[in-house]
Design a protein that fits this description.
- The chain has 14 helices and 13 strands.
- The chain has helices spanning about 15-30, 45-50, 65-80, 95-105, 125-135, 145-155, 180-190, 210-225, 240-245, 265-270, 285-290, 320-335, 340-350, 355-370; strands at about 1-10, 35-40, 55-60, 85-90, 110-115, 140, 160-165, 195-200, 225-230, 255-260, 270-275, 295-300, 315.
- The strands form 2 sheets. The chain has a 7-stranded parallel β-sheet with strand order 3-2-1-4-5-6-7, with helices on both faces.
- It folds into 2 domains: about 1-170 and about 355-370, Glycogen Phosphorylase B (Rossmann fold), CATH 3.40.50.2000; about 170-350, Rossmann fold.
- Helix 9 (about 240-245) links the parallel strand 9 (about 225-230) and strand 10.
Length: about 375
């Protein structure tokens, strides 16, 4: 039995990118071969109320400025030793620091440090800390080949120490909605029944560049009067983005849906999916769009080109170029190839990113780390 301690800062919501992937991983590991533990620096209300997929460890390390955090770190090291944990896998900035240090002090057999973004939080101090900690890491795990290359260049890590496993998705949860549901969804949003829906699913934060999506929407709406736009997600940028939609003159054709827990159902009612981010490692949204049978227009960030192939299941455009984004959206809508591109994307998701395929890769990966 391989015991794995997954260390993360916290999980406030099960729908966020890294958190969602970690929860899928824990839930679907083969329990005849693996025993997972979810170890949070601070346990959220959601975790207390809803998480029950494995033992939950409250590490009690909410801040490095609190003396109690260091005593609790020592207790966590004792836990790793007492339970004879084989592997520690770290997530997020603080989770990585605490997890690597604790794993080193506990002499676990392997420390896995994940890289699931391309360091928009990096500064000179953080890079210095990483350089100190990285010597204790057994292997790094990226979720895109592009991020693997980025880790090698930015952190000076030898590429043979960086593995790649893409994001997983329960593809069976995603499907095209029935005509009845599609009509009902449009009626709910006060859109015409024959509206073509272009949507984006993202946290409303600066790195997601939703303003780019809105500026592209302005150009598309001028050329395609039947097109409407949907923004799914919540965040600190919502109010200024709603104001921007008004200033751009697209408020009547854009709907902000806020946080939704029925993402598969929403995507099933759309016609095309968009990613406008300034930085990503490997976008969950892209894989969800593909699984839902949507053509994708996305910015060239992270591993976007590892999932979206121009003219096959969508198009990739330069980051920050709303005119190119709008042009590609119009190209797809005018081509009559919505269904064909969507079906190509669906096959891509099922073959490469299905939960079953990715879980096999994870399990072989963990066994390989211990063998090495």
């Amino acid at each position: 039995m391989i015991k794995i301690a997954f260390v993360i800062d916290t999980i406030e919501s099960p729908t966020a990118g890294t958190e969602k992937q970690l929860l899928l991983l824990i839930r679907h590991l083969d329990r005849s071969r693996f025993t997972p533990y979810l170890c949070a620096l601070r346990v959220s209300d959601w975790m207390r109320q809803h998480f029950n997929d494995c033992e939950l460890i409250d590490m009690g390390v909410p801040s490095f400025s609190k003396l109690s955090s260091y005593a609790n770190l020592v207790r966590f090291v004792s836990f790793l030793k007492r339970q004879r944990i084989d592997l520690v896998q770290t997530h997020f900035v603080d989770g990585n620091k605490v997890g690597v240090i604790a794993g080193r002090l506990a002499h676990v057999k392997g420390i896995i440090s994940t890289r699931r973004n391309q360091g928009y939080w990096h500064n000179r101090m953080e890079i210095g800390i990483l350089n100190m900690l990285n010597r204790w890491v057994t292997v790094f795990l990226a979720n895109a080949e592009d991020t693997r290359q980025w880790v090698g260049k930015t952190e000076g890590v030898a590429l043979d120490r960086v593995a790649v496993i893409h994001n997983a998705l329960q593809t069976t949860d995603y499907r095209r909605a029935s005509d009845e549901l599609r009509l009902a969804f449009r009626a709910e949003l006060a859109f015409p029944p024959d509206a073509v829906l272009v949507g984006i699913v993202a946290n409303l934060r600066p790195v997601k560049a939703i303003d780019l999506f809105l500026r592209a929407a302005q150009l598309v709406a001028a050329r395609c009067p039947l097109v409407r736009f949907v923004v799914v997600g919540e965040g600190p940028d919502r109010a200024p983005l709603e104001e921007l939609s008004t200033n751009l003159g697209v408020a009547q054709v854009v709907r902000f849906l806020g946080k939704r827990l029925d993402i598969p159902e929403v995507l099933g009612c759309l016609d095309l999916g968009v990613l406008s981010s300034q930085s990503e490692s490997f976008s969950n949204s892209i894989v969800e769009y593909l699984a839902a049978g949507l053509p994708v227009v996305c910015t060239d960030v992270g591993g976007a080109r590892e999932a979206v192939f121009d003219g096959v299941n969508g198009f990739v455009v330069a980051s920050g170029d709303h005119e190119a984004m709008a042009a590609r959206i119009v190209d797809i809508l005018d081509s009559g190839q919505l269904t064909v591109l969507g079906e190509n994307g669906r096959r891509e998701a099922e073959e490469r990113f299905s939960l079953a395929a990715i879980m096999q890769r994870y399990e072989r990966f963990y066994e390989g780390v211990l063998r090495s």
